[in-house]
Structures are given as structure tokens and as C-alpha cells.
Specification:
This protein is mainly α and 221 residues long. It contains eleven helices and four strands. It folds into two domains: 107 residues, EF-hand (Recoverin, domain 1); 103 residues, Recoverin, domain 1 (Orthogonal Bundle). It is globular.
Length: 221
Amino acid sequence: MGSLQSSPSHPDYVDLAEKTGFSLEQISILHKRFKQLSHNEDKLRREHLDQITDLQANPIREQIVEAFFDKRNFYQDIEEPVNEISFENFLEVMSNFRPPSDNLSEEQLVKVRLEKLRFLFNMHDTDKDGTITLEEYRHVVEELLSYYEALENETARGIADAAMLEVASITRGHMEPDEFYEGITFEHFLKLLEGFEIESRMNIRFMNMDTTTLCKLECGK
């Protein structure tokens, strides 16, 4: 497979496969993508991801990029701020966008779902305080609505506020518009998405590579 500098060795592939659930073939494909993104460097930085054309039109592009540098998404504990990531870190984050395998047990499926929901929650908990606040939620909704030119900013804010109050009513009971809401905790987040099939919906198109299609290379065999 070549040297470590050009491609991970076979033992490394096996170890990464066990950690992430990707097959050896998928890891090989992802390593090529990693090298393309990093311009053949061993570390990936934010500016590399900012150059991806497929992500530039994504309304939550900033959250996706930051997810790759959020140490909460790595298997090992990291104390210092993350400004660049290794291929292993890249794989760890990408595994959250991978649909679950067909042969998982019920217990394993529950674990996968919990991990994906935690990852999704962390993406929107941008200040890392353990809750999604009104401002954080409003930012996401406004960014999604920004592509509709007919909507003015005040209208977008109104929609975001109404949606947040609806969520608050579900998680904390009836609330008046002028009441202060502290935000959605992860426990509330789990309840809100209970019964919603999210496991196979979390995928991104990454430099002409669809993570759902990537999984089907192996899962469909």
C-alpha cells in the first residue's frame, strides 16, 4: 500500500476499521480524499475544508467544518485547541455521517443512534455549554432561511423564535413569548427526535463523494 506518508499501512487500516466501522476499501478511498483535501500533507486545516466547492453552498457549512476540529468528536481526550487534524481524526468525524451496517444488533443500533445524535447536538452547541440556546437555534434557522431571498431578516427571526418557543413548550411545558428559556439540553434533544429516523439521513457530499454511496460500495455487497 505504499509508505505511511502516502497511505496508511495495512495494520493501520485494520485498527481504523475497528474504530470507525469503515471497511478497508472505504478507508483507502477516504485516505485519497484526505490527501487531496490537505494538498498531500499529513494534517488537515480549516482552510483546506473551506476550499471545497460542494460545501460552499451548504447552509450549515460552518458547523460541518468546525465539527472536524471539535475535540468532543475525537475518541481520545485532547486538552489544547484543535487547529489541524490527522487522518485518524478525519475518519472519526466522517464515521458519524456513515449509515449503520445492516448486520448490527439492536444494542449496537441504539449505540450508533446515540453517538450520531450527540454529534449532531455538538454541531449546533457552538459555544460548548451543553445546551442549544435560542441564539444558537436562531442562527441555524436564519442561515437555512437566508437562501430564500423573499424572506426579510425580521421574518426569518420571527420564524426562528416561533420554532424555538414550540420546542420549549414541548420540553418545558407552556411558555409565554417574553419568558426566558435556557435552551435545549441533550436529554431534551433526544426526546425531541425520538422516533425520527436519523441514522441513514446524516450524510454529506464531500468533494464529489457521497457518504451514503460510499457505504453502499461495501454494504451492498
